[in-house]
Amino acid sequence: MSKLDTNSHSVFLLTYHLILVVKYRRKVINDTIANRIKEIGEYIAPKYNISFLEYNHDKDHTHILFKAHPNTEISKYINAFKSASSRLIKKEFPEVRKQLWKEYFWSQSFCLLTTGGAPIEAIKKYIETQGEKR
């Protein structure tokens, strides 16, 4: 099991897998652009109590594994990250603009998955058996 995080009032381990897809699934992400996307995400992350654990990409999407705190507003972080990275990537890499028709770099949708350690059935069983004699 991973080391638990703490703050003044709680102990937690909150990890997420975020997948962001380029608008129209355009294959515009190369290694240089991917590294810049990662830099932007990592720069914004501390403001939202988020830390990157792993990052990788394909030509039309990125994968980010990150840790968060209970007070993290994940949707606000995702929106800030998508907005800043979209603006900066289009500004710093003008060739990307030619492949996207509108102002957007990212698709409006995203995939966010929790990555808890125990299978849901094991947790259900544990909760069901609380208070029973062993």
Fraction of helical residues: 25-40%
CATH superfamily: Transposase IS200-like
Regarding quaternary structure, what we see is single chain
Q: What overall geometry do the principal axes of the alpha carbons give? A: elongated
Broad structural category: alpha+beta
Report the top-level CATH class. Answer: Alpha Beta
Radius of gyration: 18 Å
Alpha-carbon distance between the termini?
24 Å
Mean pLDDT: 91
| Strand count | 6
Side-by-side strand order of the widest sheet = 4-5-3-6
CATH topology: Alpha-Beta Plaits
Q: Strand share of the residues? A: 25-35%
How many helical elements? 4
How many domain regions? 1
CATH architecture: 2-Layer Sandwich
Protein name: Transposase IS200-family protein
Pfam family, one: Y1_Tnp
GO molecular function: DNA binding; transposase activity
Domain Transposase IS200-like: 11-130
Topology:
Elements lengths: L4 E2 L4 E2 L1 E9 L8 H14 L6 E7 L3 E8 L5 H19 L1 H6 L6 E9 L5 H9 L6
Antiparallel strand pairs: 1-2, 3-5, 3-6, 4-5
Helix pairs in contact: 1-2
GO biological process, one term: DNA transposition
Protein name: Transposase IS200-family protein
GO molecular function: DNA binding; transposase activity
